[in-house]
Amino acid sequence: MVLLEPLFGSDHLTMAFVDSATLILVCFPSIYFLLIKPMVRDLFAKAEAERALTEVQASNEFLRQDAEERIRAEALERTKADARIQFQARILAVVQQAVVATGKGGVILYWNRFAEWMFGWTEEEVRNQTLAKVTGFTSEAAKSGLSGFGAVKGWTGEVKAIRRDGSSFPAYLTCSTIWRGDGSVAGFVYTFMDITERKSAEAAIRDSEEKYSTVVENSPTGIFIYRNGRLEFANQRFFQMVGRSQNDLAAMDVADIIHPDDWAMVREMWRRRLAGTGASQDYECRILHSGGETRWISGRTALIRYGGEFALLGNIQDITERHKAEQALRDSRETLHRLSARLMSAQESERQRVARELHDSIGQSLSAVKFMVERALDEQAEGPESPQTRSLRAVVPVIQSSVEEVRRISMALRPTTLDDLGLLATIAWFTREFQATYPHMEVERLIEVEEFEVPEILKTNIFRIMQEAMNNAAKYSQASRVTVALRQVLGDLQLVVGDNGVGFNPGEIRRPTSAGGFGLASMRERAELFGGSLILTSSPSEGTMIIARWPLPEEPTS
Question: Reduced to 3 states, what is the DSSP secondary structure of residue 374?
């Protein structure tokens, strides 16, 4: 502009600018409406068309992708359905039950492999055949399964089925309805299960139950089941024992049956048995008969499970007669014991009387005769000895021997030392006499008590047991040593007589004979007479030992 200014000048430039501006202002509206606006409208419409086309293309692509996804999903679903159908078909093929599908009219549409094995027909052979014709499933049963209540709810039960070869077998049948989508019936599915083995097992169980029931009900002993403090079951013999009937079982209380004095013991034992703490299985107690009679029973219990819980199976036997017999035997034994005691006492008294008579009467008479003979001999000593004198002098030793024999018999019957000097002196005298009689046997005497420590009532029996034991040792033992001991052991008075002889087997039965054999029984009887006991121990070549002991009375406390 600066370079043009010298040529035209500043006024001319201003005018030219004004003219151009005027021209533009006058012509622009026309140009806008005639040229720019249509051009802009066309460009906008073209842009809108391109945008709409792009949207349509995007929508078409989305629809195409969605269609492809749906096609793929449907194909996958069809594949899954086919796989599921194939899997179900395989299951039906291997299931251990005969599965049969029929149409509404009963024509067979499906027949699995197990049905082929069970009935002997292949699927091709039974196709288009009716179920009743092939399986023997009767028309009456089919009707009950195909109509009315059975068609809606299905049908189950036991039927008699027939195989291809004509053989029959019991089967358990279930029938289920196949429904269409519109609710109409399309057909039925039947499953057959061979229950021959189950029927045999049920028959065996029934036979076993009948046998068990027969055995239980005809058992000579009472049988019961005890649980939660109540009797759950009892057989007929049990009710006979307690004098009640089967109708009384529900209201029966065990405490009313068992004697009150025995109920605590029985209840505690049953509680321990149920707890598994090892209580005794066997027991004896009294029961109360409904008629008021008390009877004795012997019982035995076993821990069982009954109704899902632990219970006791009890078995009882009436032993009332046995108890009566045992009581009679005890009474008899006590009577015999008393008789034996009186017999021994009478025997000792008689021995003492005979010994006294021998000593005081015959002994003194013999002593008097001896004294008179000796006096007569002394009076005739001054003159010559005649034949009569010599005869009298020969009689003196005989009389003296008779006196000594009477004294010996008297001492054997009843030692006077036992009454005069006591037991310990009598033991000492007897062992000296024994040693003198049997010099080949050494006698060892061990006395560890005082005379006052031995009860007076036991002295005679202690001496008699010792006498019998030592005499037996002398007769049978072939021993070289005999030991006699009298001591106190743990509050008991104990007499021990032992030898080192040949011994014997105590288990062998030794029967009494006319020559004897009652010695051991006599010693035991004497020991038990006053509450004592006698033990014999022996074995071949080991000697014999007899131990008699008596409990000593306790000393009174101040």
Answer: helix
pLDDT tens per residue across span 345-379: 666 666 666 666 665 666 666 676 776 776 776 66
Question: Quick check: pTM over 0.90?
Answer: no
Q: Which helix (H) or strand (E) holds 318?
A: strand 309-318
- Out of 264, 299, 318, pick the residue that ends a domain: 318
Contact 551, 530 (CB under 8 A): no
- How many angstroms separate the CA atoms of 355 and 340, rounded? 22
Is the distance from CB of 389 to CB of 395 less than 8 angstroms?
no
In DSSP notation, 252-280 reads --HHHHB-HHHHHHHHHHHHHHHHTS---
429 and 371 inside one domain: no
Q: In this structure, are residues 333 and 326 in contact, taking their beta carbons and an 8 Å threshold?
A: no
Quick check: is 527 in a domain?
yes
As a whole number of angstroms, the distance between CA 276 and CA 270 comes to 10
* 168: CATH: 3.30.450.20
Give the CA angle between residues 289, 292, 296 to the nearest 5°.
Answer: 50
Calculate helix-pair angle for 456-472, 423-437, nearest 10 degrees: 10
Strands 442-447 and 544-551: unpaired
Query: What is the domain range of residue 522?
Result: 417-551
User: Quick check: is 34 in a domain?
Assistant: no
Give the H or E element holding residue 451.
none
Q: Is residue 3 part of a domain?
A: no
> CA 53, 59, 60, 61 torsion: positive or negative?
positive
Closest to 91 measured CA to CA, from 196, 237, 191, 201: 191
Residues forming a β-bridge with 310: 305
Write out the two tokens for 60.
């078409």
Nearest to 249 by CA among 226, 221, 267, 216: 226
Look at the chain and report how many structural domains it folds into.
4
Residue 130 DSSP code: B
Q: Is residue 145 part of a domain?
A: yes
243, 182: one domain:
no
Q: What is the dihedral of CA 344, 349, 351, 357, to 10 degrees?
A: -170
Query: 427 and 398 in one domain?
Result: no
Do residues 380 and 287 both lie within one domain?
Answer: no
Q: CA–CA separation, 434 vs 472, rounded Å?
A: 12
Q: What is the pLDDT of residue 547?
A: 92
pLDDT digits (tens, 9 = 90+) for 295-319: 898 888 888 888 888 888 888 888 8
158 & 268 share domain: no
